[in-house]
Amino acid sequence: MAKQRPSARRGDDRRRSWLERVRPLIASQVGDPSLVERRYGELIAAAARLFQEKGFDRTTIDDIAGRLNISVGAIYRYVERKEDILLLTLARTLWRFQKLGPPPPDGDPAQRLRELIRRYYRVIAADAPSTLLAYRESYVLRGEARQLTKDMELETNRAFEAVLRDGIARGAFRRCRVEVVTYDIVMLGHMWALKRWYLGRLVDLDAYIAEQTDFILSALSRRRGSGERRDRSLPRIPRRV
Amino acid sequence: MAKQRPSARRGDDRRRSWLERVRPLIASQVGDPSLVERRYGELIAAAARLFQEKGFDRTTIDDIAGRLNISVGAIYRYVERKEDILLLTLARTLWRFQKLGPPPPDGDPAQRLRELIRRYYRVIAADAPSTLLAYRESYVLRGEARQLTKDMELETNRAFEAVLRDGIARGAFRRCRVEVVTYDIVMLGHMWALKRWYLGRLVDLDAYIAEQTDFILSALSRRRGSGERRDRSLPRIPRRV
Amino acid sequence: MAKQRPSARRGDDRRRSWLERVRPLIASQVGDPSLVERRYGELIAAAARLFQEKGFDRTTIDDIAGRLNISVGAIYRYVERKEDILLLTLARTLWRFQKLGPPPPDGDPAQRLRELIRRYYRVIAADAPSTLLAYRESYVLRGEARQLTKDMELETNRAFEAVLRDGIARGAFRRCRVEVVTYDIVMLGHMWALKRWYLGRLVDLDAYIAEQTDFILSALSRRRGSGERRDRSLPRIPRRV
Amino acid sequence: MAKQRPSARRGDDRRRSWLERVRPLIASQVGDPSLVERRYGELIAAAARLFQEKGFDRTTIDDIAGRLNISVGAIYRYVERKEDILLLTLARTLWRFQKLGPPPPDGDPAQRLRELIRRYYRVIAADAPSTLLAYRESYVLRGEARQLTKDMELETNRAFEAVLRDGIARGAFRRCRVEVVTYDIVMLGHMWALKRWYLGRLVDLDAYIAEQTDFILSALSRRRGSGERRDRSLPRIPRRV
DNA sequence: AATGAATGAGCATTCATTCAT
DNA sequence: GATGAATGAATGCTCATTCAT
Fold first, then answer.
1. How far is CA A185 from CA A157, A191, B204, in A?
2. Who wins on pLDDT, D165 or D30?
3. Does B231 reside within a domain?
4. Which residue, of A138, A227, B71, C142, is most buried by count of CB atoms within 10 Å of its CB?
């Protein structure tokens, strides 16, 4: 017990904390936590696919129950309403990014960013339909559930933010508004999922990652001469109130 | 035919061609084209708002009829099914980008791109909810209707493509896969609509445009030394089948 | 037009005012008032029977629709929820008492009371199951609807109150707490409906009315000697706060 | 057997006989009678409250189990169906009147009746919601269960019948149809529960009892002259077939 | 004896679409 | 052309009851 491997332990912590984030928002009537976790997994597997194919509103509880060979009543012992299943699905999707693994080893900021982008984009590509689903159906969620998805997205962004700030501090990247550029990088990852109907005909994933990595690193490169706006003092950029 | 006023003609062409694109997909029972056009406009105005607020599936025909002070039966004389109204709405949204106005004046490619970005991003910001709607509800459309929205989006991209290709040809921009970078630029515009819940708290539109313009132009700048990958021969990048 | 008979007019007023009492509580989607009135009548006829037989909660909308040879959707164009049908039913039942006709002619208070009792009890007996229904299912209604049924019941009681007060003022009846005795009379009428499973085996309606009339008039008679409590000053009877 | 303390014995008899009346109608799977009796008591306590608040049909077995901190399965070991719990509840309510205590001491019939009324009305007032419940939900019971509640109500009435008959025989009360007048007295007691929403605002319980006692005794008083209908021969009153 | 997860028929309500007027 | 009442299949959710543990 005393000598658990840190990585295994962290993995465990992470899985647990995913449930911990979601469960308080979903009133389950079933007590046994391991059963609940199993059922959640089954629900996600079945529902994610259906939601992707037909959309949330066009997927019925009967569809989900049928695919799981379970009764509708059984589903409602684990969730209170249909939206809860969507929350489960989206939370699991967003959580994948927490599994990007140990942060890239120290070293050249550009290399660290490259690696982070590669991992992040690969996670997206591994399940593009889920990313699409998140864009399409997030609006269905309200209140705390909606907030949770937003929070989880922003938390994921933090890894990029850290690398960017470090790179800027070390003079490897040009100065920029880090929050915006962070989202640029994230967005260009999501783009693979959002526009795959077009991009997929042009390039494969590796080429896409290479292209976007070039684009991003080039955008961050410090330029000679007038490249970087001299007069720009970040703090003075007007914030919108 | 020869002496129509250019401006009137262009405006007319454009409006007509929007209808021309959409009408063959929508079986209206009403003959009078100007009446149809008027009703389409009313439908779009009412439905767009409702779809944005509640989503397509959660908006009823009664909602739309009620907002228009028209009968449900009347609506069904102009469209065949509910999805047609969505098509109308999305087509109108996508059409806004055709109105970017006269192409930027010849000159420095960077200046032309700057100007194009500025206009494009402003159009998005002028009606962010519609962009959001397009991302959320496009999947509802099937067949030709879905294809039309894709085509219209790609057509809009052409203006960026042209400027990029010109800039590369003239050595102002680094070499890159133009279709991808085009979509990057477009995507970072959509991002203002998609992530405004976050970005809107950080920057205002002008700052956003400035930041992204810097980002994009920096990404396109030719760099000293190894910045541009020497060994890269674009045509050899494997296409995905 | 100018010379409508008063009675006919009053009858008309009354029917209208019944609708006027109920309609503001029921959001109907149908405009045509005469159609609404007709449908309300049909709904009441079908639902009252079903509610009496099986109870409100055990009667389904399908039952009602089936009995009316109407679609469920049609019902929901006239009412917003199932409870509305119950309100309709109870309101109609309570309204029957407004039709007791012109108040008994002036004369001996005992005679007027006798006549009022006779009429009131006959109305109950004419549709005992509805009275039973009111006792059983009123609790289902909430808010304004519940209040309306209470108000209508109390309004009916007023006729008895007036006769009692008049009789007491004229020395024909002993002094008593009029509101309580009023409800006694009303209650002994309801009793015919509530306990008919027992009473119906013992007496017929006329005998019942005769018996109860004797009971009530005897109870109200002024007695010699100690019959009427001398020391009792009505105003001093403690009111419950 | 001979030397049990009277009080203990009576209490025991009564409790036992209540169970004896109900148990044959309820198939319990549990053998131990004292356990069954305890569970019945718990069920009644929990269910009565819930039935009063939400009605029988709107109270779920889960509600009851939850309130008792017992499993639904456990409940179904003591009763066969949900209706059994209602029977239990109503039987207990009706049984309260068996506990009116030793019959009023011999003496003046009016005094005995006064005392009986006082006790009976107090029992009702002590748990008015249960009386309301009986009126509302009795119809749910069918067959023997329904009959049992009717029988128990009529048995309670017997005490009043006896006093009335005695009073009439001794010339203290006027002649009347005893069964009807008995129910009048009972009904005016129930009225406190049924119309408390109105009466409770006018009088307190003691005033109510005083008022009704006056009303009833006055109704039973023999009057001078034509007060009592001479020509009336009770046996000839037509019975309803 | 007790538990509580599972079942699945049942129900209120919605809403796209039709069609008689 | 326009109206709006009617249709009825569809759907989310409930809950009495069962039964394996």
1. 9, 10, 20
2. D165
3. no
4. A138
* Domain co-membership, B71 together with B101: no
Rounded average pLDDT per 10-residue block, chain C, 241 residues:
41 62 94 92 97 97 96 97 97 89 77 95 97 97 96 93 94 96 98 97 97 97 57 44 42
How many angstroms separate the CA of residue A232 from the nearest CA in chain B?
11
Compute the average pLDDT of residues B86-103.
87
Tell me what the pLDDT averaged over chain D comes to. Answer: 87
Number of folded domains that form chain C: 2
Work out the average pLDDT over B28-54. 93
C27 touches strand F (CB under 7 A): no
**Residue C75, C-beta contacts closer than 8 angstroms, at least 6 positions apart:** C43, C61, C64, C65, C68, C85
Instruction: Assess whether B162 and B128 both reside in one domain.
Output: yes
Give C137 or D102, the one with higher predicted confidence. C137
Output the distance from A147 CA to F17 C1' rounded to whole Å: 39
- D183 contacts chain C (CB < 8 A): yes
Specify the CATH number for the domain of residue D126: 1.10.357.10
Question: Does B16 contact chain A (CB < 8 Å)?
Answer: no
Domain shared by B113 and B221, yes or no: yes
Interface residue of B90, B156, B184 to substitute, partner A, most A CBs within 10 Å = B184
Q: If pLDDT is split at 50, 70 and 90, which confidence band does B192 have?
A: very high
Nearest to D135 among C135, C187, C221 (CB): C135
- A66 and A128 both lie in a single domain: no
- Are C42 and C102 found together in one domain? no
Residue C60 lies in domain = 20-88
Residues C134 and C184 in one domain: yes
The Cα D6–Cα C206 span in angstroms is 48
Q: Do B147 and B177 reside in the same domain of the chain?
A: yes
* Strand E close to A39 by CB, under 7 A: yes
D105-111 contacts at long range (C-beta below 8 A, 24 or more positions apart):
D108/D172, D109/D163, D109/D166, D109/D167, D109/D170, D109/D172, D109/D173, D110/D167, D110/D172, D110/D173, D110/D217, D110/D220
Subset of residues 46-105 in chain C with CB less than 7 angstroms from any atom in strand F: 70-74, 76-78
Q: Cβ–Cβ of C150/D204 closer than 8 Å? A: no
Residues 6+ positions from C211 with CB-CB distance below 8 Å: C203, D176, D177, D180, D181
Cα angle B104-B110-B111, degrees, rounded to a multiple of 5 = 40
Q: Which of B58, B180, B215 sits opposite A199 (nearest CB)?
A: B180
Give chain A's residues under pLDDT 70.
1-16, 101-103, 224-241
Q: Does nucleic acid strand E have an atom less than 7 angstroms from the CB of B60?
A: yes
- Please tell me whether any atom of strand E lies within 7 Å of the Cβ of D140: no
Contacts of C187 in chain D (CB under 8 A): 187-188, 191, 194-195
Residue D141 has pLDDT above 90, yes or no: yes
Query: Which amino acid type is present at position B27?
Result: A
The answer to whether residue C194 neighbours chain D at the CB level (below 8 Å) is yes
Quote the pLDDT of residue C224: 56
3-state helix, strand, coil in chain C (%, to 5): 70, 0, 30
Q: Degrees (nearest 5) of the Cα angle B187, B190, B193?
A: 155
Residue-level pLDDT at C231: 44
**Does residue D160 lie within any of the structural domains?**
yes
Higher pLDDT, residue C153 or B235 = C153
Q: Please report, rounded to a whole number, the percentage of residues in chain D having pLDDT higher than 70.
A: 84
Per-residue pLDDT at D99: 75
